[in-house]
Structures are given as structure tokens and as C-alpha cells.
Amino acid sequence: MFAEVIVDISASAVDKIYDYDITGFDVGEGCRVLVPFGKFSIEGFIIRVKETTDYDKSKVKKILKPVDDFPVITKEMIELLHKMCKFYHLRYIDVLRLFIPSEMRTGKVKSLSKAVLEFVGNKEEIFVKIRKNAKNQLNLLNFLEKNKKYYKTDLNNAYSLVAVNKFIESGYLIEKKEDYFRSPDFLSVENKKVKHSKLQQKAIDEILSKRDKTHLLFGVTGSGKTEVYMSVIENIIKEGKTAIMLVPEISLTPQVLSNFKARFKDLVAILHSGLSSGERFDEWKRIRLNQAKIVVGARSAIFAPVQNLGVIIIDEEHEQSYNSESNPRYFTKDVAEFRKNYNKCPLVLGSATPSLDSFLKADRGIYNLIEMPVRINGKDMPKIQIVDMLSEIRAGNTGIFSRTLLYELDNCIKNKKQAMLFINRRGFSSFMRCMDCGYVAKCTDCDVSLVYHKEDNMLKCHYCGKRYKVLTKCPSCGSERIKQGAVGTQKIVETLKTYFPDVKVLRMDNDTTSAKNSYQKILKEFGETKPAILVGTQMIAKGHDFKDVTVVGIVDADQSLYQSDYKSTERTFELITQMAGRAGRSDDEGKVILQTYAPRHYCYKFIANYNYKGFYNKEINLRETALFPPFTTIIRLLFTSENNDLVLEVVKKCYNKIFDLANLYKDDFVYYDAMKSPITRIKNKYRYQILIRLKKDREFEIINKIYSVCDECYNHKVSFFVEINPSSMT
Ligand code: ADP
Ligand code: ZN
Ligand code: ZN
Prior knowledge:
alpha/beta; 7-stranded parallel beta sheet; 6-stranded parallel beta sheet; 23 helices; globular; binds adenosine-5'-diphosphate
């Protein structure tokens, strides 16, 4: 017998299928095996078993031995492996590594087992044989019950090692090894049984009765989506099937996890980055051995080795973090669609602010739309007040807080309530803005905001590479008061302290949450302090349920609006709507103050009315006109190397080959060009890119040809990769 093996080395040169002889070994598809490879012995994965090989049989080497006593990769995942490699142009090994916990590969974490003792003796018979002064043995005997199992360490501790060993020697206790799993800690909460609202029941019925569908569950914040997910899962489990539920990493709060644990007990396994290596390893193993039936986790949990899937749920489906933006690049929703089709089970995408892409699919009938437009407590959404910061300037207030926001904060503090101030800044965002009329420079061709690049003092468009002179004078009103740069969380905290020196101000952003558990700590402290103000980035926008937050302030809403990104308006709508959902969650009325220099921007009007559909209609039309996704696909080939001449050579070669393609597929190429990347050098490496925008119909055909071009242009001194609809174009 022979096997096709992928060796565990991440390098293109060896990422091939190798044949090995497995005659005499008890191994099959999906098993890890140790194989001789050159001078070394290396671990590999069997992806196929076959009777014969095309190679000279006498030269095909034998495997050395199996690594585990079970196949670590299921049949389904092997099929997925082939799909992902083809679809995303990935290496086999990079995909395979997604499928098992990294702890398994390094061999640093081992399975644990515990010694278990079973009592098989007869109490009366033993009693007469024990010396009457052997207190420990007598007590032990008293404690034991026929055919019951005990952990050896527990008995040792309670009745002494000597007594326990004596019983084992005499054959009263029989020792066995039993797998033992490390498990994450949980807050213990009660399993809340609620009566479903009509809308919830309808959603549940719909999902369970249309099993071949992808459902878009569009429900406002607080409409009770989580209860729908849990109830669907409960039904699926009763049928003997399994479930995967994905939640963005940032929303995987102890609260959410504990609710699942309370309802489903040990049937739940959790996979996220906060676990220790041992815990992650054991949770994965419980899933693989079919002991856990429900997987709750962040993005990578989509690869959990559950079998007989009955439902896949992706909560907050609009979240960017579901896309992997570094090698191996993939889209979680694509993977979910594959697993849905393989298992013939429903896929549920849930959101209060669905991605335009998903809503378009619902609009076209590809997804089944389920709506839950009201909050479960029947309360209205908090009122959103738009404050024009230009009129603040005209009135002499040039600070970062409007008079309205200061007034509301002051009130909130006097009433011993809480406030959250939000700055939606992502990465570096340095647009230029006229402080008199609010004008922001945009690319004339692409209608996205330009980004200021300090190193060459230029404004650049990240979508076509066009470069513009920096603004010295506003083209709209002639003012010379042009400001560049953005307010950060730190600045907001400092300013707050000058206004409210005695109030507790907490800050939450990438800098303050890098240490383990710091995120939880800040939330806990905020939860316990009144009055208090929490200042933060998008981290504070999601999921939190603080009953005493009465004021939410969006300090500079435009900062996400003017990111040089065709999705910036969509993201602004989503972030602010989510953020607004933090206010007024109990009896006190909540208020949202939205500060902007562009108060008449259509985005804010729709936000203030909680009009998602209105926003969707407007935005989807703009996308169609401007030929941006979801009506086109953006492809970026990024090339980097320390050798400028060499990288240029490869870019040119690639460019010319794709140019021929573009001629062949004239109608499909909306845009095609090669240029320096917006950031021309990082860590001493020169960066170039080829940008392509394709129409939808034949995109897969063309993308495959582009992959072939990449293979033809391969040069081991230049690294380059293909990005599809990347969210960052730096
Ligand atoms: P969403 O995920 O849609 O934002 P949640 O699932 O967080 O909403 O629900 C909001 C709150 O309503 C939660 O505290 C939840 O326990 C509660 N809840 C959900 N369904 C019901 C119900 N049928 N009856 C009473 N309370 C409910
Ligand atoms: Zn102006
Ligand atoms: Zn442009």
C-alpha cells in the first residue's frame, strides 16, 4: 500500500505530494506519520491511500511510524484542503496547519491521563481480613462502593498511599488509565429559560425547516439573536448532530461563553486565543473524539474537526476579522459554505448591520432573509444626536468636545452614571481636512479619500496609485486652515481629565490591552465604578452590556468615514450603530452624541434614523456605479524584496503576462496597473504591487490564470502573494 504525504515544512519548493510505502502499518487517510525526508525524519500528513504508485516502487521509501493513534484530519477536511489550495493559491502545508492546534505540531503539549480505580471486592470478606488497628484501610473500605470508579490521587490524599496500594495489591481495586482533559474556567451562571418571542420562534422554525439554506438573520442589537442560535443548536443536538458557532474574538467574553456552558454543559468546547496551550489542545481533542458536540470559537474554529455537522452559525457576520489577511489568506464564509454543502446543513449569518455583500445576496434570493426589527425589551433604540463641529468652531470652540457632549457628560456624572467615548480609528488614518468647510481630499478617479504619506509629502490613492500634492489651500472654500492627523484615545483621556479631574477615566485600545487579561480587567473595573468614563476604539463597540451607560459619545465620526477605503462608509455605519447599541440598555434613557465635520453626509442621516435598508440602497448603488465590490473583485499582487532591481524585474514579467490576459478578457478587466505600493519600503524591503479589478462573471477563471502567471514568475528571492478584496491597501 502507498500513501500520498504532505511534509510539515512550509516552503514552496517542497510543498508537493510525496509517495511513501505504508505496507505493514496501521495508518490511513488523515494520519500523521513520521517519514524519512532527505537526511532528516519529518512529520507529514497522509492525504490519500492508494494501491500503487507511479514512481519506481523500489525507490519509494517506507514511512517510519505513525505519530498519533487516530487520524487527525477528517475526510471532509482533506476535501476542503484541496478546495482551499486551488481557490486561494495556498500551500498544502499552510492549510493543513490550520486544521490542528499548533500545540500538537511542536509536541510540547501532551495528552494527559489520570489513574482511575474501580472497586470490585466484597466488603464483608475484606473487612474480616483487615487488622482492626489499620484505621486508613477501614475508612477506605467504608467509603468504597461496588463497581464505582475513583481517581487514584483523590483516594491517596484521603486514605493514604499505603492503604490504597494495599487494596490494589489484593485485587480489591483495579487500576485503569483514563483520558483527562484540561478545561477552561467559566463563570458559573444559571441557564436562563426564556419564553421565545414570536419573532424568535419564527426565526428558529425557519432555520430548522429550511436546512439547505444560508440564512441572513438581520436583527437589531438586543433583539435576542443569541437565544435563537442557542435554541437552534439545542434542536440540532437532539438529532444527534453537531454545531459550530463563530463569534469575533473580541466578543468572546466570559459572559457569552458561560451562557453556552450553562445551557450545554460538557457538550461545548471553546476555541479561542485566550486559552492556555494545554486547554486548547484538550478542547480540540474532545471535539475530534466526538465528546464535544458544540464548538464555540473565533475564526479558526471553522476548521474544528466536528463530524456530522447540523448547523454553522456566524455571529456578527459583517466583522472584518473573519477574513484572514495574512498567509494563509482565506474567507471564513467561503469555508463555512463549503462545510455547509458537504454536511447538507444550514448556515446562519447573524448581524444588526449585515455586510452589504450579504444583504445583496439576501436581496437576490441567494440567502434567506430573516428579520427581527425590535428589541426584546420593547424599548426604542437610543436617540442619536448629530453635532456639527464646524459650527462649534464658528462659535469659538476649537476643542475636541462639543458643548453638547460636555453638557451630557456633566449630567451623566452628576447622576452617577457611566459614559463611553468612542474613537473609530483603524491603523493609521491621516486624511487632510479643511477646518472651515469640512472638505476632505478624494481621488478624482476612485472617489475614496486620499491618504497623507509623510515620507514623500504626498497624498495618495490606495486604489489606483494616483498621487496628489498636499493641500495648502482648500479647493472648496479657499481657507488655508487645513489640518492633518487624527485624535487618539490618549488625547481624549488627557482632555477629559482637565474637565472632570475627579472622575474615573479608563482607556481601552491596542496599547492598554496587550497584556493577558488586561481587557477583562478594564471592563471589570469600569463595570464596578460609578460615575466613570470609558474611552476606547472599536474594542468597546461590541457586545458589552453595561446597564448604567447613559451617554455614548462618538468623538470624531469622520475618522472612519475618511479612511482611504471603498468600505469606509459601510464600516462607519456599522461601527456607530453598534456603538449606539451600548447606550440605554436598562430603564434610563440613553443618548448618543455623534460629532462630525460633515453633518450632511448621507451616512449620518441613515445612522440617526437606524435606517439600515435606506443606507443599503444608497450605498449599493454607489458601489455599482463606481464598480467596486460586491460588483467587482479587487485583486492585489504584492511583491517585496531587498533587491530593488530584482523585484522590478519580476513585477514587469508578471505585469506583461497579465497584460496579455487582460487583452484576452477585455470586458472583464475594469482596472489594471502596476505601481509602487503606497508605503514604498517596509523593513528595508521594496514594495510594488499590481492592482486589478475584475467584473464578476468569469472572475474565477481569470483568477486561476493569474495564479498560473504567479507560478511562472516565481523567484525565491522575491516574495509575492495574491490578495483578494484586501481590507488594507498599504
Ligand atoms: P442580540 O444578540 O440580538 O443583540 P441578545 O441575544 O444579547 O440580543 O439579547 C438581549 C437580551 O435579551 C439578553 O439579556 C437576553 O438574555 C434577553 N432575551 C433574549 N430572548 C429573550 C426572551 N425571549 N425573553 C426575555 N429575555 C430575552
Ligand atoms: Zn474649505
Ligand atoms: Zn484613485
